[in-house]
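Database export, one record per block. Field names are fixed; values are copied verbatim from the stored entry.
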Amino acid sequence: MGKAQTIFIAGHRGMVGSAALRRCQELSEYEAIVATRQELDLLNQQATFDFLKSRKPDCVLIAAAKVGGIHANSTYPAEFIYENLASATNLIHGAYLAGVPRVLFLGSSCIYPKHAPQPMREDCLLTSPLEPTNEAYAIAKIAGLKMCQHYRKQYGVLYHSLMPTNLYGPGDNYHPENSHVIPALIRRFHEAKETNASEVVIWGTGSPFREFLHVDDLADACFHLLEQENPPDWINVGSGSEVSIKELALLIGKTVGFQGEIKFDYTKPDGTPRKLMDPSRLREIGWTPKITLEAGLEETYQCFKHSLSDKTLRD
């Protein structure tokens, strides 16, 4: 057996980064390099450059990002564009300066246009306007993707990107206002159950469809992609299936054990009617997800309760 490849997982304490670290530790072919925010501030350009030069990993996996739901994105757009742009450019250019041969940059499905044809293919990028509520985050992610593409083209380095659909799983953020839909609903249903509330009210009609991928499946996809000698500049990763918000709410209510009524507030906005990734290119190179939504939600709820009890819940 040859020497293990070293891989710097930027953002290893976040939901995505911690899943990547778990997967990396299961694989004998890789040896993880990590640094806490106190040890390395990715917004500090010189510190990032110096770290990469001193450690010189074989690969950098960029999972570090400032993330949040619609409320957070629309309330703090300046922080979202600055922090995500700064960390991405510092890591990508720093990797190049340090002679790192491979970078895998993790983006998001929100890079695609608001009215992209469904399911969304990779080639619909930049064909029409973005969703205004998360434009700042999306632009930063597009910049990172394009930076990898152009460094690869000009310098011959293997820098490429993976665009995940909506993610959930262990280590998610459960902030009451700034979290994504699955952690927000898990928390709301759990609190309703604990207080014996008679009902839970969900914004909108419940009719929009969304796609979800367990974060451990994403981590598995990352390492599958790293085994490819000539991957696309960017590629989608998703479950390939979708569920309505109403179906999702009913499923989470059942998972949590909430016995009350679920109501929908039709006066509140629905958002985009449908948002589904086209995962066919990743399927063609041999990767498919393994975790069903039902099983993933059950595991995620157990992790939520455990984090509540030991006071490690991210909120």
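Remark 1: The chain is about 40% helix and 15% strand.
Remark 2: The first helix runs from residue 15 to 26.
End of record.
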